[in-house]
From TrEMBL:
SUPFAM superfamilies: HD-domain/PDEase-like. Keywords: Hydrolase, Iron, Metal-binding, Nucleotide-binding. Its EC number is 3.6.1.41. It comes from Anaerobacillus isosaccharinicus. This is bis(5'-nucleosyl)-tetraphosphatase (symmetrical).
Length: 188
């Protein structure tokens, strides 16, 4: 799909603020893709559509999770998690995007997972550090992303876990598994 066509499609389903966030993720992801040698076209598509389902009604997302036999856990750990796997499902169904690597980058952009691909790491980190983000710790991850993608990923996932624990929110198994995977590896 052409980049301009993709941008037009996403603009129609997101409020302005979230569209600007998406442009920030796109710009960040393209620059990381250049630096680390990822496929530009895949990075573009995954970045543009990573939050495709963000504004779907929760009831619709929950039905899709049940009907498509996605993990029951998704229904228990909080609505914020739903838009990632549901987004991967819907961009295939509604937009015909069928590149599995792109779909996985969308599917795992909120939690991460063990054995993340370069594309998945780039989307996860870009979502975290794009220029409109301003939460504490983001500058450190921005800096790390310039020199070591895995260090940046570890910091981003760790910060997310801290954040969830500080709010006494449940940590999704994939998030913990992603963290453990990086920590347990001697080399990234
Ligand atoms: O969609 P965005 O806002 O751009 O960013 P995102 O897809 O990374 O979603 C961030 C939200 O997801 C934030 O409210 C924290 C939440 N989140 C991330 N990991 C987990 C999580 N929530 C739970 N319950 N468990 C997680 O492991
Ligand atoms: Fe998201
Ligand atoms: Fe996002």
């Amino acid at each position: 799909m052409e980049k301009l066509k993709a941008l037009e499609l996403i603009k129609n389903v997101l409020p302005e603020k979230r569209y600007n966030h998406t442009l920030g993720v796109l710009e960040t992801a393209v620059s990381l893709a250049e630096k680390y040698g990822a496929n530009q076209k895949k990075v573009e598509l995954a970045a543009i559509f990573h939050d495709y389902a963000k504004y779907r009604p929760v009831a619709e997302m929950k039905s899709i999770v049940s009907e498509q036999n996605m993990s029951d856990n998704l229904l228990k750990y909080g609505r914020e998690l739903l838009h990632a796997p549901v987004g991967a499902y819907l961009v295939r169904k509604e937009l015909g995007i069928d590149d599995e690597e792109v779909l996985d980058a969308i599917r795992y952009h909120t939690t991460g997972r063990p054995f993340m691909t370069l594309l998945e790491k780039i989307i996860y980190i870009s979502d975290y550090i794009e220029p409109n983000r301003s939460f504490s710790g983001v500058d450190e991850v921005r800096l790390l992303a310039q020199t070591n993608l895995d260090e940046a990923l570890l910091k981003g996932i760790s910060n997310t876990i801290y954040f969830l624990v500080s709010k006494q929110q449940p940590v999704f198994p994939d998030t913990l598994a992603a963290y453990n995977h990086i920590i347990l590896k001697e080399e990234f």
